[in-house]
Amino acid sequence: MAPIDDVPAFVPPPSDALPVIQWLSEAVQLHVQASFDVLRARLRFARERLRDGRSSQTGDEALRLTTLLATDMEAFTPMLERLGDSRAQQLMHAHNEILRSCLRRNHGREVAHTGDGVLASFRSPVHAMRCAIAMQRRLQAHNLENPGTPLRIRIGLHAGVPLPEEDRLFGACVNVTVRVCSVAKPGAILASEVVLRLLEGQSVFRFIDRGSVALKGIRIPRQLHEVVWQLQAAPALPVTLN
User: I want to staple 154 with a disulfide (CB 3.0 to 4.6 A). Which of 68, 91, 117, 184 is the partner?
Assistant: First the structure.
């Protein structure tokens, strides 16, 4: 505790005529009043949140480090034109079920469905990475069984502190996640440097450094890493990200 002379709120008695007991009593009253002011301000804030239908969980989520996962399907529009609405819809149902099954198994929360992809959030970067790998492996198995109608997706992973916005998420980290996904090749998983730092010590995952990549609409280039997810992957060669 700092000495009394170092406390900014310390004010000496105005004169020797003021009894010390009275001086201390006034100080206690001021402190109590200030405490009640803080309490009243917090009660007003809590009342507003409850009136708006927002719980304390919303506030907690706004301050939680979250790992985000974004997916995007390759050649979605050409698939519609080639297969027709009915068959393409069946294929999309298979796509959605595979992705959502992986999310459920790995504690992911679907934040948005974009028509040909999803945006999901995870409290754990390990769960997010396992989910991304599971998605690619499940789709690979689907494609082996259905070579005439393959489903190939790109996946991007990033982490940050998003803000809740009408049951969705908002913020720069969301934009970066979507942009990381957009530069991945179909069938690939790209993760930002932030995700790798969060996964330090998890030697079960393997990565290939893809260097610093300029992302559309993002001022600072991001260091990206490709996740090796194939069960028997061939030696990877450097590639140029478009």
Answer: 184
Let me know: does 226 contact 216? Beta carbons within 8 Å. Answer: no
CATH classification of 59-227, choosing from 2.30.110.10, 3.30.360.10, 3.30.70.1230, 3.90.740.10? 3.30.70.1230
Q: How far apart, in whole angstroms, are the C-alpha atoms of residue 175 and residue 179?
A: 6
pLDDT tens-digit series, residues 134-165: 999 999 999 999 998 899 999 999 999 998 87
Is the distance from CB of 89 to CB of 80 less than 8 angstroms? no
Least confident piece of the model among 88-92, 104-108, 204-208, 235-239: 235-239
Residue 203 sits at φ, ψ, to 5 deg, of -70, -10
Q: Is the pLDDT of residue 177 over 50?
A: yes
